[in-house]
Structure formats: C-alpha cells, structure tokens
Amino acid sequence: MSNSGVRTKAPVRLRPIALPAEHGGWSFVLEPILLGWLVAFSTAGLFYGIGMFFAFMARHPLKLALSDRRKGQRLARTPYAERFALGYGLTAAVAFGLALLTGGLTPLVPLLIALPLFALQAYWDATGQSRELLTELSGPATLAVIAASITLAGGWSPLQAVALWVLIVARALPSILYVRARLRRGRGQPFNRYSVNGAHSGALLLAFPLLDAGLIPITALLALLLLLLRATYGLLIAEPRVPAKVIGMQEVIFGAVFVVLTAVGYVRL
Q: What is the rounded CA–CA span in Å between residue 219 and residue 265?
C-alpha cells in the first residue's frame, strides 16, 4: 500500500518464470550435451547442443503458460511466461536449423525418432502430470538422445552413438529412482532400497556387453559403480533428513563426475 492509499501491483519475479528450479532437470539436459561435445565436438554438434538446451529452457515457461490457460486464468506472470517460451523456442529452432545446414540429415535422425516422446512429454506437462514417475523416467531418456545427434555430427558411427545414448540412460533412470527414494526416506515415508539398488545393478550389467564390444570405456563402468555405491550409502547409512536442495546439488556433482570419467575414458579408448 502506498502513502496515498492507492494499492500498487507487486512486481513480477522473472527468475522463477524464466528458469526451471529443479537441479535434476539441469543435469539431465546438460550431461548428454557436454559429454557429446567432449567426445565428438563439431560445429553441427555445437548447434545441436544449443538447440536442445533452449528447447529444454522453453519447457518451464511453456508449462506455466499452459497451466494458466488450463485453469482459465491470466495472471501477471502469464504474458512473461509466453514471451520466454516463445524466445527460447525461436532460439532452439534457429540452432537446430543451423545444425541441419552444417551437419546434414543424418544427425537429425535420432531426434526425429524421439519426436513422439517429446510430444508425449509436452502432453504430460500440459495436463499437469510432470511429477508422475513415468514422466520423470521418460524425460531424461528422451533428452539423452541429443548425445547421439551430437556424436553423429562429430563423425561417430550409428552404433557408437546409440551406445552412448544407452549409457546416459543407464546413468539417469536409476538416479531418478534413487532421488525419489531418498526424499521419501527423509520424510519418513516407505521406500524400497532394493529396487533402487537393483536398477543400478541392472545398469552395470547392461554396460558390460557395451564394454566388451569396445563401444564404451572402462571408466564409464567405474562411474556407474560409483553411482551404485552412492545409492547404497544414501539409502542405508547417510543422515536421512537432508534438504531436497542438498540432494539435488549432490546429484549435480555425481553427474559431473560421470561426465568427466566417461569423457576421459573415450579419449583413451
């Protein structure tokens, strides 16, 4: 209330509209991009990474705008959300266009194959289902496909590119189960550590044939083993009541370790 008694509107905070708050989301889009750039950098791959990043950035303000529309309301944040979504989307479109011009059609194929999954993610966001387990699992698996496009643009074979995508998915999906279980443990809710450890163990077993075929480095296997040990410690020994933000930051660090270990191994492969 101003001194004159006239009510003034509270300023709109742009950061919560422009930037997604989840640390996990940042990791799951940046890890495949950075890993792809580190192991097979090219001009087209650079544009593919930029395009995927801004497509990811568009998701949050678009979700806000669609949520407001679904509820039949137009809040102070709504026009800003629409502008951010449009700006990010146009930037992504330009980047993907430049990637196509500089890299040809082949690197675009993984994204075209994954297009139905991207559409499904958009539908879940629009209908308020983004926190469901299936949505949280399919999101990182879909985002990881950008690593295949980047490495194809960098001269990798389709088999090598698919192996890298599988490796990133093997890192991401068990980690989502771990974070969900860790949060439930902190709230005193029931959780199943065996399913989480089983998922991490399954990821390790999946990596062995890829390693034997020479498609992934031994350091990637070590990174997956580290994630298994982290899950075992976090659900059995660690202090249960840890803030969600701290758990998120820890996962960002583990994701960075995964990227570095894997990239170093590919350089020496």
A: 5
Residue 108 is given by DSSP the state: G
Residue 67's pLDDT is 83
The closest alpha carbon to 240, from 194, 196, 173, 191, belongs to 191
On whether the pTM is more than 0.85, the answer is: yes
CA distance 269 to 160: 12
Q: What is the pLDDT of residue 10?
A: 63
Q: What average pLDDT does range 34-59 have in this prediction?
A: 97
Amino acid at 161: A
Token pair of 258, please?
Answer: 């995964």
- Number of neighbours of residue 214 by Cβ within 10 angstroms: 10
The whole-angstrom separation of Cα 148 and Cα 184 is 34
d(C-alpha 39, C-alpha 41), whole Å: 6
Residue 177 has a pLDDT of 96
Tell me the H-state helices in the chain: 15-18, 23-39, 43-70, 78-103, 109-113, 115-126, 133-143, 145-153, 158-186, 193-212, 218-236, 244-268
Q: Which of 263, 30, 250, 262 is nearest to 144 (CA)?
A: 30
Residues 144 and 169: beta-carbon distance below 8 Å: yes
Check if the beta carbon of residue 261 is closer than 8 Å to that of residue 222: yes
- Token pair in block for residue 100: 């196509």
Token representation of residue 56: 């990811």
The pair of three-digit structure tokens given for residue 134, joined into one six-digit string: 């299936």
Q: How many residues would you count in the chain?
A: 269
Residues 119-139, mean pLDDT to the nearest whole number: 80
Sequence letter at residue 248: G
Residues 6+ apart with CB under 8 A from 208: 221
Buried b / exposed e along 154-163 (16+ C-beta atoms within 10 A): bebeeebbbb
